[in-house]
Amino acid sequence: MVDPRYHIRVKPDDVGKYVIVVGDRGRVERVAKYLQEATKVGDNREYLTYTGYLKGEKVSVMSTGMGSPAMAIGIEELATTNARVVIRVGTTGALQKGLNLGDSLIVTASVRMDGTTNQYIIPEYPAVADFSVVNALIGAAKRVENPYHVGIVLSTDSYYGKAFDEEKHGHLEKQLIKAGVLGVEMEIGALYVIGSLKKLKTGAILTVREELTDEGYIQAGEKFEQGLEKSIMIALKAIEILIERGA
Ligand SMILES: O=P(O)(O)O[C@H]1O[C@H](CO)[C@@H](O)[C@H]1O
Ligand SMILES: O=c1cc[nH]c(=O)[nH]1
């Protein structure tokens, strides 16, 4: 028989109803330190999982690695546990001026430029967040006080180029920027589409890691690290809001 949690290697009851997913396994403990009684409940491949408590409710944090295939496996397997609400805390490259290093970006929807979700459903099916999760993230961002933006991102399969190769796809970049797409990352399309298909409530908050300036991109640094910490706090506060609302 196929193990429904072959990759994430957790017991269903070891995962809370509320789960934060992060790309980088080094980010898991940065989130877990805010949970009460956090303990490691799984560690296999890119999937490192801790579970603790917030307001008496079990909350987990799991890394999903880079790219949509790894996110898809993580979400499929999480859906066989107690998980019902999944919030991604990730990083993004800005596609618009005015998104500064360390700013938070609450993601309402994604342009599905990944391959994975096309193997699940027609391209016209939207990659959209759960409204109650977006609402809680906005409420939390107001309280934590980090500059934040709300909107659409582009989810690609390639960090180095391809969709944004000026010669090959310059028109596409211009089209999406003109259409107001705020940032680029690599997993939210899969999270939102597969989350919807599996009846999970999903949302995401990204931190700007590459800022677009007149001179080109500037990357990471202290402002980014501080902003990431704030984004983690916003995601946790959003979960507290959802717990209070019984959502
Ligand atoms: O910081 P994370 O969550 O990994 O997200 C972004 O960073 C990675 C690329 O450097 C991709 O996974 C992209 O989506
Ligand atoms: O996928 C990503 C993440 C951060 N910055 C980018 O340019 N791409």
UniProtKB/TrEMBL annotation:
Its EC number is 2.4.2.3. One of its GO terms (molecular function) is uridine phosphorylase activity. It catalyses: uridine + phosphate = alpha-D-ribose 1-phosphate + uracil. One of its GO terms (cellular component) is cytosol. Coiled coil: none annotated. It is an enzyme of class 2 (transferase). It comes from the Bacteria. GO terms for biological process: nucleoside metabolic process. Residues 17-239 form the Nucleoside phosphorylase domain. SUPFAM superfamilies: Purine and uridine phosphorylases. CDD domains: UP_EcUdp-like. This is Uridine phosphorylase. It comes from Pseudothermotoga lettingae (strain ATCC BAA-301 / DSM 14385 / NBRC 107922 / TMO) (Thermotoga lettingae).
